[in-house]
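If your schedule permits, I should be very grateful for your opinion on a structural question. Thank you for your consideration; the sequence and its tokens are set out here:

===
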Amino acid sequence: MLDTPTIRTAPMPDAMRVLLRDYPRDAWEDHPGFARATRNWLGAHQGFRRLAATLTAETEAYLDKARDGELYADRLGRAGHALVVSLHGHHHFEDRSYFPELAAADPRFESGLAILEKDHTMLDGVLHDLTRSANRTIQLIQLDQGQARDEAGCLHEHTQAVEALLDRHLGDEEELAVPIILHHRLRG
């Protein structure tokens, strides 16, 4: 068992979700202020969720001996690299550009920003652990299948931690940011 981070399970405080009541998730795409930039941002989030789920599914297939080691190593390397690099770039953009724009437009965003930034820090650690375990698994596939499967068992815990953290974090980020974007007609 790995020392996995404690992922916040409570929703964002109501004070940070005030606009969500006026702009519920199921009405976002029909709103006239729902611009391509917001759609692309949400699309990136869906891509991260899919990549994380792919890592878990591929690891499970390998552990169940339904996936050849070489094929698994290739898929793990490609999907893992894409997830880690893309998430780091995405969060850098949010921290440097997107979040300051939202905070300047609506002070309510500031109250949720500390939580989102804490999530980004936690995610950095989880991605570091995932990368270390994935690299070790890939190396061991070439050297010792038994040890590779043991390491893949550890990796499975990391992939599940990434999925859970992304689910919580991205959902909060979306429900905090998109109502502000729609309310103030930002990113049009």
